[in-house]
Write a structure and sequence with these properties.
With 125 residues, the protein is mainly α. It has one domain: Multidrug-efflux Transporter Regulator, Chain: A, Domain 2 (Orthogonal Bundle). Helices cover 69% and strands 0% of the residues. The chain has helices at 7-14, 18-26, 46-60, 65-77, 82-122. Helix 4 (65-77) runs antiparallel to helix 5 (82-122).
């Protein structure tokens, strides 16, 4: 079985390193371990890369690895976990929104300081 993508191809496609992909596998974040080719190397499917893309977004949006692992566990269990998965994502969404609001407040302070320095440089009051 040598179909599918190599770890290098998936790394290039997802922007992750091969090390991170191996870590995601060891951490239990993948839906299933990627099958191995005749040469023993991992061979990733399109489904794997789609899942990895989702993991990348979840991580980039601040989801902790433990929550990502829980989400993967639920996904492996199938349709009976839709409610639990939705609730997990809704909780994460609330966290993301709170962080966005905090960033907006932080940006206001930065903008205020920039405006203050602009006025002082140009001699405005």
């Amino acid at each position: 079985m040598d179909e599918g993508m190599t770890i290098a191809q998936v790394a290039q496609r997802t922007g992750l390193t091969a090390h991170t992909l191996r870590y995601y596998e060891r951490a239990g974040l993948l839906l299933e371990p990627p099958p191995r080719g005749d040469n023993g190397h991992r061979r990733y499917t399109e489904r794997d890369t789609d899942w990895i893309a989702l993991l990348t977004r979840l991580r980039a949006s601040g989801m902790p690895i433990a929550a990502m692992r829980r989400y993967a566990e639920l996904a492996r269990r199938g349709q009976d976990t839709y409610v639990a998965r939705k609730e997990l994502l809704e909780a994460h969404r609330a966290d993301v929104i709170a962080r966005i609001e905090q960033l907006r407040r932080d940006l206001e302070v930065v903008d205020h300081k920039i405006d203050l320095y602009r006025r002082r440089i140009t001699g405005e009051q």
